[in-house]
Amino acid sequence: MNKYETIDLMEVANNGATPPNCDLTLQIKPVYAKGGKSKGIWEVDEKFLNGLGVTMGGYLASAADIMMAYAISSQLQESQTFASIDLHTTFHRPVFPGTVEVYASVERLGRKVAYLTAELVQNDKKVGNAVSSVMIIEK
Q1: Averaged pLDDT for residues 53-77
Q2: Residue 128 phi, psi (nearest 5)
Q3: pTM of the model as a whole
Q4: What is the mean pLDDT of residues 127-131?
């Protein structure tokens, strides 16, 4: 198992380094992460669908969580790491197989807690959003 540091996540997002297994499993590719913002491209296929033919909501939450990790990593020092406190996801419309863009932002960065948001877009329509509180941990 490879353990990633925040600096490693920046290498993944901005320089094409090998991503963590969760990214590979979900088929999400970070495009960039800098200045508290990140963007990823998620390729949804049949393995993410429920019995009704739409993407299970937990996968949307995971995609948002992954890209929020990149956003917060772009704001932290090498001596810091992070862990999610909570994650709240709202679904606006069903997600079907195809490409989903995931945008994440650090809305507020404190010494011990950060607040982040994410938006998921398919075919130029918002399909979901998420908010998360993240604890900042000194190593």
Answers
A1: 98
A2: -175, 165
A3: 0.96
A4: 99
